[in-house]
Write a structure and sequence with these properties.
The chain folds into 2 domains: 30 residues, no CATH class; 201 residues, Sandwich (Jelly Rolls), CATH 2.60.120. The protein is mainly β and 246 residues long. The protein starts with 44 loop residues before the first strand and ends in an 11-residue tail after the last strand. Strand 10 and strand 11 form a beta hairpin. It contains no helices and 15 strands. The protein is 0% helix and 33% strand. Strands 1, 3, 4, 6, 9, 12, 13 and 15 form an 8-stranded antiparallel sheet that branches. Strands 2-5-14-7-8 form a 5-stranded antiparallel sheet, with no helix packed on it. It is globular and about 70 Å long. The structure holds magnesium ion. The site of magnesium ion (MG) has 7 residues, from strand 7 and strand 8.
Protein backbone atom coordinates (compact mmCIF):
# COMPACT_ATOMS: atom_id res chain seq x y z
CA UNK A 1 0.00 0.00 0.00
CA UNK A 2 1.24 3.43 -0.91
CA UNK A 3 2.54 5.47 1.95
CA UNK A 4 0.19 8.28 2.89
CA UNK A 5 1.61 11.65 1.96
CA UNK A 6 -1.23 13.88 3.11
CA UNK A 7 -4.42 14.24 5.10
CA UNK A 8 -7.96 13.01 4.44
CA UNK A 9 -9.66 14.45 7.52
CA UNK A 10 -9.02 18.13 6.87
CA UNK A 11 -11.53 20.74 5.60
CA UNK A 12 -12.02 21.33 1.86
CA UNK A 13 -10.29 24.32 0.29
CA UNK A 14 -12.98 26.75 -0.93
CA UNK A 15 -13.88 26.36 -4.59
CA UNK A 16 -11.92 23.12 -4.99
CA UNK A 17 -12.44 19.42 -4.51
CA UNK A 18 -9.22 19.20 -2.53
CA UNK A 19 -8.77 19.10 1.18
CA UNK A 20 -6.09 21.10 2.98
CA UNK A 21 -2.84 19.09 2.53
CA UNK A 22 -4.69 16.61 0.29
CA UNK A 23 -2.24 13.92 -0.77
CA UNK A 24 -4.44 12.93 -3.72
CA UNK A 25 -4.19 16.37 -5.32
CA UNK A 26 -2.20 16.19 -8.61
CA UNK A 27 1.49 16.74 -8.22
CA UNK A 28 3.07 19.67 -10.07
CA UNK A 29 4.39 18.44 -13.39
CA UNK A 30 8.14 18.14 -13.65
CA UNK A 31 10.02 20.76 -15.67
CA UNK A 32 13.79 20.58 -15.91
CA UNK A 33 15.30 24.05 -15.49
CA UNK A 34 18.15 25.24 -17.68
CA UNK A 35 21.71 25.05 -16.38
CA UNK A 36 21.35 28.73 -15.55
CA UNK A 37 18.21 30.77 -14.92
CA UNK A 38 18.50 32.33 -18.39
CA UNK A 39 18.69 29.05 -20.32
CA UNK A 40 15.38 27.68 -21.58
CA UNK A 41 13.76 25.07 -19.32
CA UNK A 42 12.61 21.75 -20.75
CA UNK A 43 9.10 22.95 -21.60
CA UNK A 44 10.03 26.27 -23.22
CA UNK A 45 9.26 27.15 -26.81
CA UNK A 46 12.65 28.33 -28.05
CA UNK A 47 12.03 31.15 -30.52
CA UNK A 48 15.63 32.18 -31.17
CA UNK A 49 18.79 30.33 -30.15
CA UNK A 50 21.15 32.12 -32.50
CA UNK A 51 20.83 29.66 -35.37
CA UNK A 52 18.45 31.54 -37.66
CA UNK A 53 14.95 32.79 -38.37
CA UNK A 54 13.02 29.56 -38.93
CA UNK A 55 10.48 30.59 -36.28
CA UNK A 56 10.07 34.15 -37.59
CA UNK A 57 8.49 36.09 -40.39
CA UNK A 58 8.91 39.67 -41.57
CA UNK A 59 8.56 41.96 -44.53
CA UNK A 60 7.52 39.98 -47.65
CA UNK A 61 7.21 36.89 -45.45
CA UNK A 62 10.87 36.75 -44.47
CA UNK A 63 12.71 37.98 -41.39
CA UNK A 64 15.63 39.81 -42.96
CA UNK A 65 17.60 40.91 -39.92
CA UNK A 66 21.25 39.89 -39.56
CA UNK A 67 22.23 36.79 -37.56
CA UNK A 68 25.77 36.36 -36.28
CA UNK A 69 27.60 35.16 -33.19
CA UNK A 70 24.40 33.90 -31.58
CA UNK A 71 22.41 37.12 -31.83
CA UNK A 72 20.14 38.88 -34.32
CA UNK A 73 20.53 42.53 -35.27
CA UNK A 74 18.01 45.02 -36.64
CA UNK A 75 18.78 45.93 -40.26
CA UNK A 76 16.13 48.48 -41.25
CA UNK A 77 14.11 45.81 -43.03
CA UNK A 78 11.00 46.10 -40.91
CA UNK A 79 9.54 44.52 -37.78
CA UNK A 80 9.76 40.76 -37.38
CA UNK A 81 7.35 38.45 -35.58
CA UNK A 82 7.04 34.83 -34.58
CA UNK A 83 5.09 32.34 -36.63
CA UNK A 84 3.69 30.88 -33.42
CA UNK A 85 1.08 32.83 -31.50
CA UNK A 86 0.83 33.13 -27.73
CA UNK A 87 -1.62 34.42 -25.13
CA UNK A 88 -0.77 34.16 -21.44
CA UNK A 89 2.93 33.46 -21.24
CA UNK A 90 6.29 33.80 -19.57
CA UNK A 91 8.88 35.37 -21.87
CA UNK A 92 12.64 35.59 -21.57
CA UNK A 93 14.81 37.57 -23.94
CA UNK A 94 18.09 39.41 -23.98
CA UNK A 95 18.95 42.56 -25.90
CA UNK A 96 21.76 45.03 -26.36
CA UNK A 97 21.61 48.64 -27.47
CA UNK A 98 24.12 49.69 -30.16
CA UNK A 99 27.63 50.04 -28.72
CA UNK A 100 28.18 53.10 -30.90
CA UNK A 101 26.00 55.77 -29.31
CA UNK A 102 23.99 57.81 -31.79
CA UNK A 103 20.92 59.99 -31.39
CA UNK A 104 19.00 61.23 -28.40
CA UNK A 105 15.73 60.59 -26.60
CA UNK A 106 13.60 58.13 -28.66
CA UNK A 107 16.30 58.02 -31.35
CA UNK A 108 18.91 56.18 -29.28
CA UNK A 109 18.79 52.40 -29.58
CA UNK A 110 15.03 52.27 -30.04
CA UNK A 111 13.36 48.91 -30.58
CA UNK A 112 10.57 47.14 -28.77
CA UNK A 113 9.08 43.86 -27.67
CA UNK A 114 5.37 43.48 -28.49
CA UNK A 115 3.41 40.77 -26.72
CA UNK A 116 0.63 39.49 -29.00
CA UNK A 117 2.06 41.94 -31.54
CA UNK A 118 0.17 44.68 -29.66
CA UNK A 119 1.52 45.40 -26.19
CA UNK A 120 4.98 46.99 -26.21
CA UNK A 121 7.72 46.86 -23.66
CA UNK A 122 10.05 49.60 -24.82
CA UNK A 123 13.62 48.80 -25.77
CA UNK A 124 15.75 51.94 -25.71
CA UNK A 125 19.20 53.04 -24.59
CA UNK A 126 18.42 55.13 -21.51
CA UNK A 127 21.90 54.90 -20.06
CA UNK A 128 22.55 58.63 -19.73
CA UNK A 129 19.75 59.43 -22.18
CA UNK A 130 16.59 61.26 -21.14
CA UNK A 131 13.26 60.90 -22.89
CA UNK A 132 9.60 61.08 -21.88
CA UNK A 133 9.19 58.69 -18.93
CA UNK A 134 6.44 56.55 -20.45
CA UNK A 135 8.82 55.87 -23.33
CA UNK A 136 11.97 55.00 -21.36
CA UNK A 137 13.65 51.60 -21.34
CA UNK A 138 11.22 48.93 -20.11
CA UNK A 139 8.29 51.36 -20.14
CA UNK A 140 4.91 49.97 -21.11
CA UNK A 141 5.06 52.41 -23.97
CA UNK A 142 2.81 55.42 -23.74
CA UNK A 143 1.26 54.20 -20.46
CA UNK A 144 3.58 53.34 -17.57
CA UNK A 145 7.23 54.23 -16.87
CA UNK A 146 9.19 51.40 -15.25
CA UNK A 147 9.62 51.44 -11.46
CA UNK A 148 13.36 51.98 -12.00
CA UNK A 149 15.92 52.70 -14.72
CA UNK A 150 18.29 49.75 -14.53
CA UNK A 151 19.97 50.20 -17.91
CA UNK A 152 23.37 48.75 -18.54
CA UNK A 153 25.82 50.58 -20.78
CA UNK A 154 25.30 50.59 -24.55
CA UNK A 155 26.55 47.39 -26.12
CA UNK A 156 26.15 45.33 -22.92
CA UNK A 157 23.62 42.49 -22.81
CA UNK A 158 20.47 43.10 -20.79
CA UNK A 159 17.49 40.87 -20.02
CA UNK A 160 13.72 41.08 -19.84
CA UNK A 161 11.76 38.50 -17.91
CA UNK A 162 8.06 38.98 -18.55
CA UNK A 163 4.80 37.52 -17.31
CA UNK A 164 1.97 38.50 -19.63
CA UNK A 165 -1.73 37.87 -19.11
CA UNK A 166 -3.90 38.58 -22.14
CA UNK A 167 -7.10 40.61 -21.95
CA UNK A 168 -10.45 38.87 -21.86
CA UNK A 169 -13.77 39.90 -23.32
CA UNK A 170 -17.20 38.37 -22.95
CA UNK A 171 -19.82 39.22 -25.55
CA UNK A 172 -17.66 42.11 -26.73
CA UNK A 173 -17.28 43.61 -23.24
CA UNK A 174 -13.92 43.69 -21.50
CA UNK A 175 -13.94 41.57 -18.36
CA UNK A 176 -10.18 41.58 -17.65
CA UNK A 177 -7.42 43.81 -19.08
CA UNK A 178 -3.95 42.72 -20.13
CA UNK A 179 -1.46 42.50 -17.28
CA UNK A 180 2.30 42.75 -17.44
CA UNK A 181 4.94 41.87 -14.86
CA UNK A 182 8.47 42.71 -16.01
CA UNK A 183 11.96 42.25 -14.61
CA UNK A 184 14.75 44.23 -16.32
CA UNK A 185 18.19 42.81 -15.57
CA UNK A 186 16.60 40.90 -12.69
CA UNK A 187 15.01 44.01 -11.17
CA UNK A 188 11.23 44.28 -10.84
CA UNK A 189 10.05 47.20 -13.01
CA UNK A 190 6.33 46.37 -13.44
CA UNK A 191 4.22 44.38 -10.98
CA UNK A 192 1.04 42.91 -12.48
CA UNK A 193 0.38 46.24 -14.17
CA UNK A 194 -3.01 46.49 -15.85
CA UNK A 195 -2.63 47.95 -19.33
CA UNK A 196 -5.02 50.56 -20.72
CA UNK A 197 -5.16 48.79 -24.07
CA UNK A 198 -2.87 47.97 -27.00
CA UNK A 199 0.17 50.23 -27.36
CA UNK A 200 -0.32 53.44 -29.30
CA UNK A 201 1.53 56.66 -30.09
CA UNK A 202 0.11 59.99 -28.91
CA UNK A 203 -3.22 58.41 -27.99
CA UNK A 204 -5.01 57.11 -24.91
CA UNK A 205 -5.60 53.45 -25.68
CA UNK A 206 -8.66 51.32 -24.87
CA UNK A 207 -10.12 47.85 -25.33
CA UNK A 208 -12.98 48.86 -27.59
CA UNK A 209 -11.88 46.39 -30.28
CA UNK A 210 -11.69 42.78 -29.02
CA UNK A 211 -8.87 40.73 -30.54
CA UNK A 212 -7.84 37.08 -30.76
CA UNK A 213 -6.78 35.02 -27.74
CA UNK A 214 -3.25 34.68 -29.09
CA UNK A 215 -0.86 36.73 -31.18
CA UNK A 216 2.77 36.73 -32.30
CA UNK A 217 5.74 38.03 -30.38
CA UNK A 218 6.91 41.03 -32.41
CA UNK A 219 10.26 42.80 -32.35
CA UNK A 220 10.40 46.36 -33.58
CA UNK A 221 12.65 47.79 -36.27
CA UNK A 222 12.84 51.45 -35.29
CA UNK A 223 15.86 52.08 -37.49
CA UNK A 224 18.53 51.53 -34.82
CA UNK A 225 20.81 48.45 -34.95
CA UNK A 226 19.83 46.83 -31.66
CA UNK A 227 20.50 43.18 -30.93
CA UNK A 228 18.48 40.30 -29.44
CA UNK A 229 19.39 36.79 -28.34
CA UNK A 230 18.17 33.84 -26.28
CA UNK A 231 14.41 34.26 -26.75
CA UNK A 232 12.05 31.70 -25.26
CA UNK A 233 8.42 31.52 -24.18
CA UNK A 234 6.42 29.31 -21.86
CA UNK A 235 2.66 29.45 -22.40
CA UNK A 236 0.92 29.64 -19.02
CA UNK A 237 -1.90 27.28 -18.09
CA UNK A 238 -4.53 29.21 -16.19
CA UNK A 239 -5.75 28.01 -12.81
CA UNK A 240 -9.29 28.14 -14.17
CA UNK A 241 -8.45 25.85 -17.10
CA UNK A 242 -6.36 23.21 -15.42
CA UNK A 243 -5.38 21.93 -12.07
CA UNK A 244 -1.76 21.89 -13.11
CA UNK A 245 0.29 24.72 -11.72
CA UNK A 246 3.08 26.10 -13.87
MG1 LIG B 1 10.09 51.14 -29.36
Amino acid sequence: MAESIGYSDTPFLPGTKWRVHDGERPQPRIVAPGKTDTEPPSDAVVLFDGSGFSNWTGRDGMAQWKVENGYMEVTRTGDIETKLHFGDCQLHLEWAAPAVVEGNSQGRGNSGVFLMGLYEIQVLDCYDNKTYPDGTTAALYGQYPPLANVCRKPGEWQSYEVVFIRPRWEHGKLVSPAYMTVFHNGILVHLHQALMGPTGHRIVSNYDTPHADAGPLKLQDHGNPGRFRNIWVRPIGRYDQTDVRL
